[in-house]
Amino acid sequence: MIKTLLTVSISFALLAAPGIAGAQGNAGPGKAKAASCAGCHGEDGNSQMPGFPKLAGQHKAYLVKQLQAFKSGARISPMMAALAAGLDDQAVDEISEYYANSKISANPPPVLPVSDDDDDAPAKTDDQKKAELTTLIAQGSDLYRNGNLATAVSACVACHGPYAEGNKPAAFPALHSQHADYLIKTLSDFKTGVRSKSKENMMHMIAVKMSDQEIKAVAYYISTLK
Q1: How does DSSP classify residue 142?
Q2: What PANTHER family is this protein classified in (predicted)?
């Protein structure tokens, strides 16, 4: 009986082996081809620089779409256009697969930048700064989930999900654990039209109605989601 069970177990292992090898193989070329991305986005897609986005855990379809947009010029970035120009469709697919299968890292607790302090005002105490940050994140949470009816700002949750996990079938990006600084820049670029050439772009139509304070608040809130 034991011999029979061992034989069956080995047989199943041998049948599964090609699938396992295939899965590892998909990550292999993608990781190697993503080596030139590591300087800005981190070796595993977890950028340590808040101005550059984390790519780890992002939906593959969204990453493919963005790399193709950089290649075609639909999304403007001289740096990314130069890098994407040398990628064929297979490389784009393998790099996107690699990052999609990487795990995004959680952010440390947020802190307000020193530049937010008014030089002419008395220095804020730690308790005051903590209270200000708590208020900011609460504002961001409300905006993310409910939008702003008074200014017709749509709720982020409709497209990006309750935990900012995104929408994989629709290729709407995951946002959780992203750097607040990058999110602020992205929303600001959508607002000013830098990110998209089309005034009909959905994110432009939303961001253009947002105040700088709202952009900052929702970015800080999203950065805390895991």
Answers
A1: H
A2: CBB3-TYPE CYTOCHROME C OXIDASE SUBUNIT FIXP (PTHR33751), CYTOCHROME C4 (PTHR33751:SF9)
Give the bridge partners for 148, in sequence order. Answer: 153
Please tell me whether 156 is known to bind a ligand.
Answer: yes
Q: With contact defined as beta carbons under 8 Å apart, do 30 and 98 qualify?
A: yes
Residue 179 labeled ligand binder: no
1 is annotated as contributing to ligand binding:
no
> 79 among the known binding-site residues?
no
Q: Tell whether residue 203 is among the known ligand binding residues.
A: yes
The predicted-structure confidence for 125-170, as pLDDT tens digits, reads as follows 888 889 999 999 999 999 999 999 999 999 999 999 999 999 999 9
CA separation for the pair 173, 187 (Å, rounded): 13
Q: Tell me the pTM.
A: 0.84
CATH 1.20.272.10 is held by the domain 16-100: no
- Contact at 8 Å (CB) between 220 and 107? no
DSSP labels, 146-191: H-BGGGTBPPTHHHH-TTS--BTTTTBPP-TT--HHHHHHHHHHHH
Map residue 7 onto helix, strand or coil. Answer: helix
- CATH architecture, range 114-224: Orthogonal Bundle (1.10)
CATH 1.10.760.10: which residues of the chain? 16-100, 114-224
- Do the annotations mark residue 176 as ligand-binding? no
pLDDT tens readout for residues 166-200: 999 999 999 999 999 999 999 999 999 999 878 89
